[in-house]
Amino acid sequence: QVQLVESGGGLVQAGDSLRLSCTASGRAFSRYAMGWFRQAPGKEREFVAVVARSIGGTHYTDSVKGRFTISRDDVKNTVYLQMNSLKPEDTAVYYCAASSSYGHPLGTGEYDYWGQGTQVTVSS
């Protein structure tokens, strides 16, 4: 069993930066691919970024490439999402998730554990 707790959300202006953190309890954090998803009001949850197991390559959805950076610290059992040049369309609840899949799982169904979410609001 893995429990995930996100933090770092808030209200910012367009162009600002935020760093989200997600800390996992339980064992074998390095054995999970870690992803970030987001869900805006009235929309489906969508993939944002993923970092693969262990050393971990990364993959991003096109709309955040060049602005967001995902990273992991397997000593601290934490995954981060550095968000720069934020836009109003980035407003959503952001969720981290853990997947036992190899590679870069992109679908919500590929993830085994989810955090409770943290709100990010970007004003124009």
Folded structure, characterized:
With 124 residues, this protein is an all-beta fold. The chain has no helices and 11 strands. The protein has strands at residues 3-7, 10-13, 18-25, 33-39, 46-51, 58-60, 68-73, 78-83, 92-99, 113-114, 118-123. The strands form 2 sheets. Strands 2, 4, 5, 6, 9, 10 and 11 form a 7-stranded mixed sheet that branches. The model has no long low-confidence stretch (mean pLDDT 96).
Short description:
This protein has 124 residues and is mostly beta strands.
- Bin the helical content: under 10%
Distance between the termini: 40 Å
Mean pLDDT: 96
Q: Give the CA-based shape.
A: globular
Primary descriptors:
124 residues; 0% helix; four-stranded antiparallel beta sheet; mainly beta; seven-stranded mixed beta sheet
List the helices and strands and how they pair.
Blueprint (H helix, E strand, L loop, with lengths): L2 E5 L2 E4 L4 E8 L7 E7 L6 E6 L6 E3 L7 E6 L4 E6 L8 E8 L13 E2 L3 E6 L1
